[in-house]
Amino acid sequence: MIARRNKEPIRRDLACFPSVVLLGPRQVGKTTLAREVASEVPGALYLDLEDPTVVDRLSDARSYLDLHRDRLVVLDEVQRMPDLFRVLRGQIDERRRKGRESGHFLILGSASGALLRQSAESLAGRVAYHELPGLDALEVGRDPSRSWLRGGFPDSITAATDDISIRWRANFIRTYLERDLPQAGLRAPAETLRRFWTMLSHWQGAPFNATTLAGSLGVSVRSVNRYADTLVDLMLVRRIQPYHVNVGKRLIKSPKHYVRDSGIVHALLNIRSLDDLLGHPVAGASWEGYAVENLIGAAPQGTDAFFYRTRAGAEIDLLLMLPGQELWAIKVKRSSAPRVPRGFRTAAADVRAARSFIVYPGEETYPLGDGITAVTLPALMRQLVEAR
Questions:
Q1: Roughly how many angstroms between the first and final C-alpha of the chain, as a whole number?
Q2: Considering only CA atoms, which of 201, 208, 192 is closest in space to residue 236?
Q3: Which of 75, 188, 194, 286 lies at a 20 to 30 A Cα distance from 203?
Q4: In sequence order, which residues have a C-beta less than 8 Å from that of residue 59 and are 6 or more positions away?
């Protein structure tokens, strides 16, 4: 079993908050992690809300949970029963009156936006949130090229062969297209949604142009925005907003979108091996998306992620605002001997970045002048983890 960095923060929050919400897409390892945390709590109860027998037991949720008021209850796929949140609020308040202040519920969900709204309304002041991304370059601890090719889903990265891995990812995509996206309220032909998802993979990290996408798909701009919102909500796509600063320059204001898992990008584009990937036109954009997702996942909780781009060409691929308002400017280059683009120097000066980095697929860290450092992806991830 691969150790997850999120385990200790979740354990700490269960000791401080009545409930902890763990968010992440399907198959990312939420259940495995939750069971591991629960195994260390005597008497913990695990309930899978996709199991009809569990749903039947919770038909009178208040009475059922009253029977287990002294236990940690793990609720998996809680978005299946949104009305349960109101019951949980009453359960938490009742347990508090009896002297228990923490460790009541560990709540797992595969839909971020809707779940956050439900829990925020019902459990305000009673909940801590954690997001579980895919396995990252530090957790896997292998050649980064393997996790870049296969992505971060545990069953994909640990598959015996590349062929088995891509077949797993193809089935994952099919399940989302045929089941999860319709269940999330996205009523559109599966083939249209696949084409949209594939187009985002081709344009990894490009400014989002709904009009162009709508024209290519033969649908309305409103439909394209709804597709994007749903994929973001299900944590399959990351939307990064531009950083606005008063520098007297014309800024790109459209958000960027990344398909969050590099392995899903490659499956959608039918890239089956590392050789195929290295020779594919999307290689540079794919590496950028892989690095961006890993760095955001390693950053301290409360970090905000932006990009910065002017119409004159000054650009920062990833601008991290760490807690305390310190800005780290990051440019991603897929070159063994990276040079600093003039536009990156200009952009880092525009935003007054505290630290500036060029992330590259090399082996050492070294200065590039003007306060800019060339650094490997794992090395910069470790710096972010240590900044927590």
A1: 24
A2: 201
A3: 188
A4: none
- Taking the C-alpha atoms of residue 237 and residue 208, their distance in angstroms, rounded to an integer, is 12
How far is it, in rounded angstroms, from Cα 303 to Cα 321? 6
Nearest to 298 by CA among 243, 349, 359: 359
- Our separate counts of H helices and E strands in the chain read 19, 13
Q: Which of 120, 122, 88 is nearest to 105 (CA)?
A: 88
CB 28 within 8 A of CB 154: yes
User: What residues does each domain of the chain span?
Assistant: 7-131, 137-386
The single-letter code of the amino acid at 133 is P
Look at residue 124 in the predicted model and tell me its pLDDT: 84
- What's the pTM value of the predicted model, to 2 decimals? 0.93
289-335 pLDDT, tens per residue? 999 999 999 999 899 999 999 988 899 999 999 998 899 999 999 98
Q: Which two tokens stand for residue 137?
A: 């370059």
Radius of gyration from C-alpha coordinates of the chain: 22
355-360 and 372-376 beta bridge pairing: parallel
Q: Are 329 and 319 in contact (CB under 8 A)?
A: yes
User: Residue 319, CB half-sphere, CA atoms under 13 Å: how many?
Assistant: 26
Token representation of residue 373: 């450092």
- Residues in contact with 181: Cβ distance below 8 Å, sequence separation at least 6, in sequence order: 188, 190, 193, 230, 234
In DSSP notation, 199-231 reads HHHHTTTPBP-HHHHHHHHTS-HHHHHHHHHHH
Residue with tokens 């972010």: 384
Q: pLDDT tens-digit profile of 104-123?
A: 899 999 877 777 777 878 88
Query: Which residues lie below 8 Å from residue 65, measured CB to CB, with a gap of 6+?
Result: 73, 87, 88, 91
Matching CATH number, 7-131, of 3.40.50.1370, 3.40.50.300, 3.40.50.150, 3.40.228.10: 3.40.50.300
At CB < 8 A and 24+ separation, what contacts does 275-280 make?
Answer: 277/148, 277/149
